[in-house]
Amino acid sequence: MIKVLDNIIFQTVSEEARLQGVRAFVIGGFVRDYYLQNPSNDVDIVVEGSGIALAEAVAARLRSKVSVFKNFGTAMLKYRGIEVEFVGARKESYNRTSRKPVVENGTLEDDQKRRDFTINTLSFSLQQEDFGTLIDPFGGIQDLNAGLIRTPLDPDTTYSDDPLRMLRAIRFATKLGFEIVPESVESIKRNKQRLEILSKERIADELNKIMSYDTPSRAFVLMEQCGILEIILPALHNLIDVEEDAYGHKDNFTHSLKVLDNVAAVSDDIWLRWAALLHDIGKASTKKLDQNVGWTFYNHDYIGAKMIPGVFRQLKLPQNEKMKYVQKLVGLHMRPMALVTDEVTDSAIRRLLFDAGDDVDDLMILCKADITSKNAKKVELFKNNYELVKEKMVEVEEKDRIRNFNNPITGELIMQKYGIPPCKEIGVIKEYIKNAILDGVIENDYEQAYRLMEIKAAELFGNKSELSDK
Q1: CB–CB of 437/398 below 8 Å?
Q2: Cα of 44 vs its chain's centroid, Å
Q3: Is it true that domain 3-140 has CATH number 3.30.460.10?
Q4: Alpha carbon of 28 to those of 309, 396, 436, 461: distances in Å?
Q5: What residues does each domain of the chain span?
Q6: CB distance 46 to 108 below 8 Å
Q7: pLDDT tens for residues 302-357?
Q8: Contact 213, 175 (CB under 8 A)
Q9: Which element (helix H / strand E) includes 277?
Q10: Cys bridge to 294: 110, 116, 247, 258, which one at CB 3.0-4.6 A?
Q11: Could you confirm whether domain 147-228 is CATH 3.30.420.40?
């Protein structure tokens, strides 16, 4: 018997199914992951009968709480760290205008046919007479061993019925390091317009799962190969270069994916990974040919940052501080390396620290990941420059306390000192003091800032008698 089924949960399901006169099976990801030797605590039980009734009986026996979702015909219980979902076996039919199926009661075979990929149709019997027997009508074990993503039915049927499965094929291929069989790739190309019936939220959910994997770049390569990247993320698709001329330059699409993988190798932060993927999206619209130097992309960092809110809206990604974080890193990603000349000035470092704030460490991760040249000498130079900037940042930060500093002089203080209402001159004074600190004219110190305020105020307002006329 398969050892993983020794758990009391499976024994209890088997006994209660016998008492109710129904058949129950473990199906899907738990079985797949067992053969991949990936431990899983998520179990799906399909029942030829009422999944809810069986779940309630099992929960009563195990003295566990059960959650019932009548609208979906499912129930869920948790027991000793394992989450078990029960559902009645179903067969489905689809309308062309929706991915929501018409559902009828069915058999295990019906349920296996409606699943996305052969590797997810695998099931273990929980019947006492053949407990633990593998049921594999579509060759799922063979595809697991071969590392293939294949649909159990004709791929045109599988992908047209539920176009989210096209993204799931790419996601599973990325997660498991598998290949999508050629007939599935061609079917995705034929059915890609069906993606239009999906909600943006469902697409974003798949993309965020992809972004959490060890090598997320593979998914975007597959999306391009399958013809769906231009539908899902046109800003990234537009980075693909099609020119054939004497002016060579690195392919910006390939470069962006390399930077994404570089970041993924050192950080699990999904939003830092998004910043890596999108850091060069401004290059498509800023690309120009200079006969003297070749292709140029002036201000692509600024343009890219301006594009981020639109990209996030299009994907239904959050429009909150997460978007602003990605926008900030895209806008600043050129700054650290641009600081390196013959001498890294304290003033430039202070301004970078001020603008990046608490995200400066993530910015430096992105900056280092962005070093992808095939020219070994160029890479060595950039890495040396990177280390130089990083060392200088530590030195300046320790000395000047610039990161996220608050202006020692507030607007309220200026109004109280000079007896004036809110006006543009207050902003002028504060900006003058801020720049003086960042440029090293004065230290980040209240007394020095106060004296500078008095000097600037005298320049703006004249003597005290003149202020009363304002």
Answers
A1: no
A2: 26
A3: yes
A4: 38, 55, 63, 76
A5: 3-140, 147-228, 411-467
A6: yes
A7: 999 999 999 999 999 999 999 999 999 999 999 988 776 556 778 888 889 889 98
A8: yes
A9: helix 270-278
A10: 247
A11: no
